[in-house]
Amino acid sequence: MAEFDKVNINPTPITTGENVTIEYDGLLSESGAEEVYLHAGVGEGEDWNDVKTIRMNRTPEGSWRTTVRLNTTQDFKFCFKDAAENWDNNNGHNWSYQVHNGEHAYS
User: Fold this and answer.
1) pLDDT (tens digit, 9 = 90+) per residue, 44-65?
2) Is it true that domain 7-100 has CATH number 2.60.40.1930?
3) Which of 5, 23, 36, 75 is most buried as measured by Cβ atoms within 10 A of its Cβ?
């Protein structure tokens, strides 16, 4: 993960039905968090549905990683927290990725 890239999503773009790996090495890591959790849901606009909090695994490099399966075409929204309830929510904007249905749009 590059120095400037504190959140890495793979693969992108995201297609419904895919497993998506989220890797985090941001503010909570830099602050010495012993545990990091992905707080994620799906939805349109400001709505969050099917919200889950998932414990992430520490990588040998010291970042945090987890994989989720996205069976939706709604936006994938997420942020991070540690065990002490400190949050990294992208300066109040959270992270959000479109999930595509796998069809190609041609113009």
Assistant:
1) 988 999 999 999 999 999 999 9
2) yes
3) 36
